[in-house]
Amino acid sequence: MSKQRVYLSVDMEGITGVVSSEDVAPGKMNYERFRHQMTKDVNSVITGLVEAGAEEVVVNDSHGNMQNIVIEELHPMAQLISGVNKPLYMMEGIDDSFRCAMFVGYHSMATGKGVLSHTMSGVTRVKLNGKPTTEGEINAMIAGHFGVPVTMVSGDQYTVSELRESLGDIEGVVVKYAIERASARCLHPSVTTKLLTQASKKAWTLAESKKPYEPARPIEFELEFNHPGMAYRAGYLPFVEPVDARTVRVTAGDAITAWRMFWSTLLLGRSSLE
Ligand SMILES: [Zn+2]
Q1: Which pTM does this prediction carry?
Q2: Which of 69, 92, 151, 206 lies 20 to 30 Å from 144 when distance is taken between CA atoms?
Q3: What does the buried/exposed string (b/e) look like for 162-171 if buried means 16 or more CB atoms within 10 Å of the residue's CB?
Q4: Residue 75 is among the residues annotated as catalytic for this protein
């Protein structure tokens, strides 16, 4: 089967120009501006993919309520996965029919130094096989389960370096240089659009040689929750092991089971009262 389809998972914190939580929260002053910019960053990636030979692009809106991308402004080549209740969450819609996956607008890990750094919400740190992990690494593991390599990421400089540490030499587009967690020196949108288009073309070619990401098995996730009540409640699940008052661990033999354990543990923990 010739694979001319590409999968894009799109978060918002690493979009061109975004520096603060107000930029990515519906109702706040700059949110409307940046949902248009989010759509533009995606279109810049798709432009490169079309030039490279892609025939279909599936775009998964992966931030907050997952209804940020403005569909009427999206490149007509794209199909948009929108809405938040999705079992594979930021990777919903991935399967073995894709040539590669790319992450747009991603951010650095919970313990990282980048703009709006976090690893999912409700937790102060997540470890994968004993090492602090990123949303990008977790999502690359899900893509890897389906034999799909991740070949590109965009965000700040830490986002790119952290994901390269897990996945090796993938295409990385630095659209801003983080100063602190809510400040950055941002490249102009007319510049980042070119960088994103150039990188996605190269990332299409890289898919020929890049191996899907597979962490060592068994796969172990450790979740350090914001407060002990969340860890206690997550422990209602029979497969969850306590580590300390705020921290729990889950272990699985394959990536999808590990993801489902991780995600259901996090969701249940987040349902705890403060
Ligand atoms: Zn986000």
Answers
A1: 0.97
A2: 69
A3: bbeebbeebb
A4: no
